[in-house]
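Format notes (please read before filing issues)

Several people have asked whether sequences and structure tokens are stored in separate files. They are not. Every record keeps both together, in the order shown below: the sequence lines, then the token lines. Line labels are part of the format and must not be stripped during preprocessing.
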Amino acid sequence: MIATATGQSPAEAWPALPTLAEWEPTKQTLHRFAQIVGKIRLTKEPFRNHWWHVPLYVSPTGLTTRPMPTGDGRTFAIDFDLHRHALVVTVSDRRDATFPLPGLSVADFYRHLMAALADLDIPVQIVAVPFDLTPVTPFAADDDHASYDTGAVERWWRALVSVDRVFTTFSGHSTAKTSPVHLFWHSFDLVVTRFSGRPAPERAGADPITREAYSHEVVSFGFWVGDANTPAPSFYAYAWPDPPGIIDHPLAPAAARWADARGSAMALLTYADLRAEPDPDAALMAFLESAYLAGATAADWDIAALTPANHPTLPSR
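Then the structure lines:
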């Protein structure tokens, strides 16, 4: 039996995930919970390029904002504790608050969290409607989204832990400017992005959010639970700007493929295909490396200059 870096078997580290349809009600509820917390981080954190001040991060117990300034000299963090299925607010003045997640509607969650922050003397004002989700029911009025399947959430989070581990290792394989490994609450995907260092041409008709996100050339990698076009949990990678000839470059493992994503090339590997590999960690790393080389080569990046000369585990290119 192959063991992962955590000492777990692949089946334990890479659990079977429900299809999007099977846990859609829970995903929609949890996605809105995450947007509420993410919007709090958006209001409290100093701005960072490419919106790096707004995502959430995988933690040993779930998801976290990491420490944020309260505005009065203290710091606080908000955590989804997915061991206990609870929301936890921790403040540097030794105060905290917690409440359980199962059984809550989005409106309940919003009221509980805002009340907890008020009790902890942390003033917060957010745009309290979902971002790019339908229906756009204000959080305080959303009693329709109230599903929470603890088993599905736990399996999703356990997969995130493994993805985060491999993405983090991959991050060290380049000297390029690289994002943290973070969960964007807009699209609910875990992402890591590499930059060439060169500005990108502005996208025609792009909104301010997109302009900031794609101000420079990137090859970006992610994992998401699926959408209407790709209903299976999958890994993806793409380059921006979309370089000519990228799809002529090979991908690994064999199950990976190029797909069209609204006119641009996207590398895809389903989570189910990854689990079928004898060594999922190695297979995911092969996918990331092959997609990076495809995008960086097609876009004429200086790959040699962006590769560590003496990395202890990275094969020479």
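For reference, the curators noted about this record: The first helix runs from residue 10 to 13. The longest strand covers residues 189-199.
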